[in-house]
Write a structure and sequence with these properties.
Shape: globular
Helix content: 25-40%
Number of helices: 5
Largest sheet: 7 strands, mixed
Structural class: alpha+beta
Distance between the termini: 23 Å
């Protein structure tokens, strides 16, 4: 089946986005990009050049070194896109970068909106031949995903730039999705906008 046919036949947008991220369906052009909600803070000195960086791990992150390494690998393209260069081994970096990521699951209750009909999950239904009653089906949970980037001056420890990016969807997301979220978090660097706003990025 061709990619465009897959796009037309798939159901919910969240499902299509997950398949694009996982399978790389290049023909689904509309789903190669995504809107990420971003908010950023700080005051990057206008005269300061973007230089070298190294990741700085919190004690809790050091305890899960393999997981944190995978996360750092996802964030590297975003830092490089912003102009930063990884410090060579033994070299003192100009800035230290702390990153984090998380996702939360929310299960919808049948009491959330009982008067509306749903294709999945518990739902309130009305039929011509019967009164209102409960129907049951599969209902996908909703996930909130978030990444955070904090950049500090290595010498003084001063926080120079902080950015957070978040998305919602029917899955926890995959590597490409989290890479895209990091790209969105750093896309406007060094500009800041503390009000959450949509940033459009292309899935890696």
């Amino acid at each position: 089946m061709r990619a465009m046919e897959v796009c037309r036949r798939l159901g919910r947008p969240a499902v299509m986005l997950g398949l694009v991220a996982t399978l790389g369906l290049g023909g689904c052009a509309a789903f190669n990009t995504m809107n990420v909600e971003v908010s950023s803070f700080g005051s990057w000195p206008a005269e300061r050049h973007v230089g070298t960086y190294a990741f700085d791990r919190l004690p809790s992150q050091q305890a899960k070194a393999e997981d944190q390494q995978n996360l750092e690998d996802m964030a590297r393209p975003a830092l490089e896109e912003a102009g930063f260069t990884a410090a060579a081994e033994g070299q003192k970096p100009d800035v230290l970068v702390q990153i984090g990521a998380r996702w939360d699951r929310a299960d919808r209750s049948p009491w959330d909106d009982p008067l509306w009909m749903h294709p999945w999950g518990p739902r309130w239904r009305m039929t011509p031949w019967a009164g209102p009653g409960w129907g049951w089906g599969y209902y996908q949970p909703e996930y909130t995903r978030e990444v955070a980037v904090l950049i500090r001056d290595r010498e003084s420890g001063a926080a120079l730039y902080e950015s957070r990016a978040s998305t919602n969807g029917s899955t926890t997301g995959g590597r490409s999705l989290f890479e895209a979220m990091f790209l969105a978090a750093m896309k406007e660097f060094p500009a800041v906008d503390g009000k959450p706003h949509a940033v459009n990025v292309t899935l890696p």
